[in-house]
Specification:
Layout (H helix, E strand, L loop, with lengths): L3 E10 L4 H11 L6 E6 L5 E10 L1 H13 L3 E6 L5 E12 L5 H10 L3 E5 L3 E8 L1 H11 L4 E6 L3 E4 L4
Antiparallel strand pairs: 1-3, 1-4, 2-3, 5-7, 5-8, 5-9, 6-7
Length: about 160
C-alpha cells in the first residue's frame, strides 16, 4: 500500500453543516485531513473546500465517491495529477535581535515576503507561496528563533488546458 498526498477541490452549497458533514466523513473512517481551507467563490451561494489528505489510491477513490454522495456537494475535483496553481499563506513571528535583523530582512527580500508587524524583539512575516517556498523560508528562519506560526493550508485552482 503506497501512501500519497492528494489535493481535493470541492464545490459545495454555502450552507451551515456542510463542512461538518465533510470532516465527519473523514473522521468516521479514520482518515486525517492534513490541510483544510474554505471560502466563498464568485457565486455567493457556493463555497470551495480545498483539502489535502494522505492515503493510498484505493482509499482516495472511496473518499471521492463518498463525498459525491453527500447532500450539498456540487463537485469533487482531484487536482493531484492535474496542472494547478497552489498557494499557502503563513504568518511567522520570529525573534529579531539586533544582530539578526539585517539577515532577517535579507531573507524577507529574497523570498518576496512582507514584514507586517514589528515589535521590540520580533518581526511578523507574511509569506505566500507553495509548500516548498514555505518550508524553505522556515528552515532559514528557524535558527533566528521562530516564536509562532499561523498558516492557511493549501488553496488551489486547476489550470486551463492551453
Amino acid at each position: 500500500m503506497k501512501i500519497n498526498s492528494y489535493l481535493l477541490s470541492i464545490l459545495v452549497d454555502d450552507e451551515p453543516g456542510v463542512l461538518s458533514r465533510i470532516s465527519g466523513l473523514f473522521s468516521g473512517r479514520g482518515f486525517n485531513i492534513d490541510s483544510l481551507s474554505v471560502a466563498k467563490t464568485a457565486d455567493q451561494n457556493v463555497s470551495r473546500v480545498t483539502m489535502v489528505t494522505k492515503c493510498d489510491a484505493h482509499i482516495i477513490e472511496q473518499i471521492k465517491k463518498q463525498l459525491n454522495k453527500l447532500i450539498n456537494v456540487i463537485t469533487v475535483n482531484d487536482l493531484t495529477d492535474k496542472k494547478y496553481v497552489q498557494r499557502e499563506l503563513s504568518l511567522i513571528k520570529v525573534n529579531a535581535q539586533p544582530e539578526k535583523k539585517a539577515e532577517i530582512l535579507r531573507i524577507v527580500d529574497i523570498f518576496r515576503c512582507k514584514i507586517v508587524d514589528v515589535g521590540l524583539s520580533h518581526y511578523t512575516i507574511e509569506v505566500s507561496g507553495d509548500r516548498e517556498k514555505q518550508d524553505a523560508i522556515l528552515s532559514l528562519l528557524k535558527p533566528m528563533g521562530i516564536i509562532e506560526i499561523a498558516s492557511t493550508g493549501a488553496i488551489a485552482l486547476a489550470r486551463e488546458n492551453a
